[in-house]
Amino acid sequence: MSTVYIGIGSNLGNRQDNCLKAIGILKNNGLEITAQSSMHETEPWGVKDQPKFINMALKVETDLTPQELLTLLKNIENIMGRESTSRWGPRIIDIDILLYDDMKINEDDLKIPHPLMHEREFVLEPLSEIASETIHPVLLKKAGDLLNDIKKTARILIFGVGNPLYRDDGLGNRIIDILSEKYSFPNSVRLIESGSLTDIIDFMDDYRHIIVIDTITTGKKPGEMFSFELDEMSLALNSLSHSTGFLEALKKLKDRPDIFFICIEPEDLSLGMGLSSEISEKIPAIIKMIRDRLLLYSITFQP
Known about the structure:
This protein is 33% helix and 23% strand.
């Protein structure tokens, strides 16, 4: 008999009943369930515009080979009415093999351990509940330690860049002030305002995700709002190449994953003594962009 850890999730219909029904079908097909986590309600991962999930983890004993087990799980999903959707989209049931003994399998249709389990708190939380000492055969770390790693590093920095000459004003500073005064954030999120993007270097190692709010001159229309990932680096580098400090900061940022810029084309190069009314009118839309981005990290904030 082999020991297998299985993850179950649902975010359509009666989510709890869907998970329990899947467990019942697994039992009816000869799998011996020796441990079962509680149900965890989690924010969607990857695609935000969908209902919350219920996630669970199971420890099972089986004589099925990995491929036979995969076929069974896919058949159960089909029986329960799962339909093809976009990647990470909504589903009535999702059943995944997380670990199978200490096997390491890398085939087109089957990868064990699950290749993203160590990045997903919604997987590791229920798994650690029933198997915190179980070792990941590739990373050679306990499931509980992997969960702690995520919780330690899942810190988010929202960094507002103001005008270096007028530190208390500017788009980034204005947004940070509004967020600080009107909204409540979990402890994993920190808000910082600064006069220069170069200051971000001092904080980079302490945060897993960084959102930068700034004004960047790109030749777009005055007041135009836009966002970009660092894989669109040329936009920022071209616009800021006149400044060695900015250039060095951006080069350092480029080495970090998951940096997201939210920007507005300034009304003029100096930004004068503050923001124009046209840019100020876009502040609600910028806050929505921040909210949408944080949802990708399963973070919400409330007034």
